[in-house]
Design brief:
There is one protein chain. The chain is α+β, with helices and mostly antiparallel strands and about 230 residues long. About 30% of the residues lie in helices and about 30% in strands. The chain folds into 2 domains: about 80 residues, SH3 type barrels (Roll), CATH 2.30.30; about 140 residues, Glutaredoxin (3-Layer(aba) Sandwich). The strands form 3 sheets. It has a 4-stranded antiparallel β-sheet. The chain has a 4-stranded mixed β-sheet with strand order 8-7-10-11, covered by helices on one side. A 3-stranded antiparallel β-sheet has the order 6-5-9. The two termini are about 25 Å apart.
Amino acid sequence: MKITTLLLALSITTLSQAAFEQWTSADGRTAEMNLLSVTEVDGEKVGRFSLRSGKIVELKASQLSDAAAERLAEWKGEGAAAAADGPASAFDDILEGNLVRLDGKRLKKCEDATKPEKFYVFYYTASWCGPCQQFTPSLVEWYNDNKNDNFELVLITSDRDEDAMEEYAASKKMPWPQLKQRKAEDFKGEFKHGVRGIPSVIVCDLDNKVLGNYRSDLPGLTKLVKD
């Protein structure tokens, strides 16, 4: 979808949350979005935005008006701090400060992780797993199409080193946060999710009640996280 069409479709006339602000595209279209983080790719600033639906989009400075591009360049992280707010969960202690996210081709500290309103989706996977390599593109597409405030997906790796985890993330363009490789075994030891093999897509409520493995039922997962 072209950026101008996206911005037009998401245009809203009033602000209901302080973190959401109006942003203007290069051709004058406006939309309300929450700026979560800013990175630089090939010398150009790229903003990572949250839509009111919870879906995440990335926009280059060149896709924005001059004034909006200047705001992007001057951003200091207020949106990321606001996005961190959310209900407490059983996973807060181990996830806080231990998440990374793909930035270009590198996994870097995740500054824009959001706390979900209802569910965590834990993706148990590894680069050496053939079925995981085949399944992951479908999950990437699913996440990009369905991300909302009700859930966050966190990858729990079975890779034995960070380089393999990073290469896997980059090759599949994974959009979600990931628990650091050195924390994965601690997580598995603390939270018994009944994983018998990978890939597994384990959905839990915020109290760590396991709601199921949705590896073979992405339509069912879509219905769950959108209700």
